[in-house]
Amino acid sequence: MNYLNERNCPMARLNYHHLYYFWQVARSPSLTEAADILHISQSALSAQIKQLEHSLNVTLFVRQGRKLILTDVGRRVLAYAQDIFNTGEELENFLQKGRATQVQHITLGIQSNLSRNFIESFIEPLLESEHVSFSLSSRGMTDLLNGLVNHELDLALTNRAILSESQETTWQNQLVARQAVAIIGPYGDKPNTAFPEGYRDKKWVVPGKNTDIRSSFESFCAAHQYQPEIKAEVDDMAMLRLLARDSGYLSVLPPVVVKDEIQAKLLQDYESIPQAFENFYAITVPRKFAAQSVIDLIQTAINQYANEES
To answer: Do residues 137 and 250 touch, judged by C-beta distance below 8 A?
Structure first.
């Protein structure tokens, strides 16, 4: 009996041999290297890819100069191929050694200006797990969202929630952490009088406009009729940390960002800004088969956040 009758089963169109070739080409720096790995000629490999595209009626690559670039569909197909052949390798290991490796690889996208201390805390469960390996990819917001849609990323970490503006994509936002914001300055130089009197002659390095921290700081200053002398605006949290440490100016950021500098008595937490927080979100999109390690990672962060808030 032919279980893959073309009239009854669309899987008959999918040649897994061709799909394997596509997987190797997509992972390799060039067609030449992929052909070397597969021990076939470049022309034969190109023909195999063309046959796969023809059978699926899609375009998987476009050529830019000498490079093959994945199309949007190609990136989606790659995500499925990755799952298929990783599972195949696990099956092979099980048959050879009598046990499955059960090591799952996930890819996390990180908003490029996010606090490194927060990221380290978030991925700590992955570092301690023997069953998960992972990749971190630092990107701008647009690239993060594209990576989620194109199945390049399993999860994205950002400091703002994403609204679903169309029916094409549903963003799943999970608040996984919240950090209080404070005025940070050089150690031992904290004003003796309360804000704003002791801060009249101070200069500031602050987060860029259109951020929650900057908005909270501006509202705080307006409520006290204080006009800060801003020396620099910085979008990148790592650079803001360095300027807070080395410039001698005051800054506004979560103390956890500069916890090492505070412990070393290079910086000091002068005072908290009421109702000012930096929120951290885990962003995902609906998946038929969501990675269990991603689900567990988000839940661990949510539980830790809930315990800290209680």
So the answer is: no
